[in-house]
Amino acid sequence: MPVIKEILFDCDNTLVLSESLAFQACAELCNEILEKYGRPERYTSHELLADFVGQNFRGMMVSLQKKYNFTMPEDEFNTYVDRELGAVIQKLEKAAEPCPGVMEQLDHLYKEKKYGLAVVSSSALSRVQASIRKVNQDKYFPPDHVFSAATSLEKPTTKPDPAIYLHACKAIGVQPGECVAIEDSKSGAGAAKNAKIPLIGYVGPYIDEGKEKQESMAKLLKEEMGAIYIMYDWKEFPQALKAVEAS
C-alpha cells in the first residue's frame, strides 16, 4: 500500500457536531415543502437525520421528491437551497461545537506536519467554513484544502458520488491510495469507497441515538463500506491511522 500523505476529514459530525443543528433548519423547510405539495407527512429534525444523514440539502430534496412523488420547478428548488444554507449557517454560527476529542488530534497532526490535512464535505463551502471557523478548526486547514461537493465542483453533487474526493485528490496532488478518509455516514463512506480511498469509520456521535444505533452503524461502515478501523472516540485516531498504514 502507498504511504499515506493526506488525511481527508468529513466535516459534519466528524469534525463538528453540526448535523443536529443543520437538520433543525432542514426539517422546518422540508415540512414547508411537504405542506405546499399536499403531503400530510412531517419531519422532526431527528427523523430527517435518520432518513437523510450524510446528504446535502440538494440531495435531500431530490430524495424527498422521489419518496413522496412530487416534482419541484428548478427555480423553486434553487430558492430552497439558498434559504436552507442561510438558515443552517445562522444556527451553526451560534451553537456549533467540535466533536469530542478531535481538537487534540488535529493539534497534534498540525504540529507534527507529517500529513497534509483537508476537509472533504457534501455541504456547501460557506457552511463548512462557518462550521470550522466557529470551533476554531480553520487554522488547521488551508483554504485551498477545504472542499465541497455542493460548491467546489463544476456540477454540484453529493456523496456517495466520489467526484468530490477525486477532485480533492487532484487539487492537492495526491493519489486516492495515498490518502485516508474519516467518515461517519453510509453516503460519505460510500464516496470514499467509490474513490478507492482507505477509510476510517467514526461512530462517536451515534451514541446519542443509543448503543444499538451506534453498533449498527459501526457494522455497516465495517462490513458494507470496508472501513479498515472503526473509531468510537477520537482518542483512538493514532491507532486507527496505524491500522490503515499497516493494511
From TrEMBL:
GO molecular function: phosphoglycolate phosphatase activity
SUPFAM superfamilies for this protein: HAD-like
Organism domain of life: Eukaryota
One GO biological process term: DNA repair
Name of a matching Pfam family: HAD_2
Xref: NCBIfam families: HAD-SF-IA-v3
Protein name: HAD-like protein
Species this protein is from: Viridothelium virens (Speckled blister lichen)
